[in-house]
Write a structure and sequence with these properties.
The protein has eight helices and four strands; from the N terminus they run ααααααβαβββα. A four-stranded mixed sheet has the order 2-1-3-4, with helices on both faces. A hairpin with a 2-residue loop joins strand 3 and strand 4.
Length: 182
């Protein structure tokens, strides 16, 4: 399965799950189920059991439900049906993408915008708060920030919000100067 196909399939799963979650009013419960599923699929021992032809679907489903029970999470009927399908199709490679797509749908549904800030060095809490306040005031909605450090920027930052890119990095300014001088 290629990357585009996997992403499309993961998005389809997430879209169906999110529609069910909205209908059944259990959006946060599904979020927990998917987070645990990602953790389960990253555990090599569990993956080995779930991929092994020696274990039946019922045995694999029992293992997974016991893991959820140990974490005090009850798999409600639609989550159990999803888990059965997920295990039957052996779509372990899709878990993280399904969870991410679900999170994106959840943010969109809740009117939350994602902001990605790439800076040359760690921003102080005051800088983060000032930036968050500024962007929140501009877009008039809740902002979900993600801060990344990339020392290649030399100084400054690049900010991504919605379809806007603000490049206030030294590297970006040097590239603009280089292009201007050509």
């Amino acid at each position: 399965m290629n990357i585009d196909s996997a992403q499309t399939q993961a998005y389809f799963y997430a879209k169906v799950i999110f529609a069910l979650a909205v209908t059944q009013n259990n959006i946060l419960e599904w979020e927990k189920v998917l987070k645990v599923l990602v953790a389960i699929t990253q555990d090599n021992e569990i993956k080995d059991v779930c991929f092994s032809p020696r274990f039946t679907l019922q045995q694999r489903l029992l293992l997974v439900t016991e893991i959820y029970a140990a974490m005090r999470i009850t798999l409600f009927p639609t989550a159990l049906s999803f888990m059965r399908l997920f295990l039957e199709k052996r779509h372990f490679n899709l878990a993280a993408r399904i969870a991410q797509s679900y999170s994106d749908l959840q943010d969109y549904h809740s009117d939350v915008l994602k902001m990605r800030v790439i800076s040359a060095q760690e921003l102080t809490e005051e800088e983060k708060l000032a930036l968050l306040d500024s962007v929140t005031a501009c877009y008039q909605c809740q902002i979900k920030p993600n801060y990344v450090i990339d020392q290649a920027l030399i100084g400054g930052a690049i900010i991504y919000v919605k379809d806007k890119v603000i490049d206030a990095s030294v590297l970006g300014q040097l590239q603009q100067l280089k292009n201007f001088l050509r």
